[in-house]
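Lab notebook, bench 4. Still working through the backlog of constructs that have no structural model yet. Next entry is a single chain of 221 residues. Request: give me the structure tokens for it.
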Amino acid sequence: MARTQGSFSDVTGPRIRSAAQSLFARFGYAAVSMRQIAGEVGVQAGALYNYTPDKQSLLFDLMRHHMRELLAAVPAALREAPPVTALEAFVDFHIRFHLARPDAVFIAYMELRSLEPENFAAIEALRRDYENRLEEILQRGARSGAFVFEDSKLATLAIIAMLTEITTWYRPDGRLSEDEVAQSYTALVLRVAGRADLPAPSLEALSGPASEGASEPTPAE
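Model written out:
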């Protein structure tokens, strides 16, 4: 069956990607078959191969799209803003971007192990690009005396892991609003970066996972 001109970008292609993302997030990449994806979309299994070579290509495309979208959305003003302001803005951006895309975030972190080596290397390069945006802010802050820490790479990875983990427990109908979570985690991240002059974030505000409407957090990786 020949692919209809424009159908990948207009109708069928996005439906396939959406179905694959939902199924991968729900059941895990290894447990999902191309036949299941086709059934979710409402097409014959063979028709999928008009739009993607195989299941691995689907996974890679989903992860690459997520990372490219993330990188494109990082506010350009962060490069010029004072380090503390830039870090606060980065935290707020990261939390809101990821909370709006829980399935994409889950796949991007949990299914790295499922990528073939060449695809893994490509996604890792995009991840390093994003990590470098944060590390540059931390390094500028260290040079100016705004932040104090021993290892900028370690601080970068710790902050990103801490912020991304929010997607594993946050619930929109839980006790804390998105704004409250962002505010509390901003204070926590500033302390991780070495702003010891700041008050500790409220332990009550950071107890979202144990509160009504939220589940206990689990490691993102």
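Notes after review: The chain has nine helices and no strands. The longest helix spans residues 117-144. Flag for follow-up if needed.
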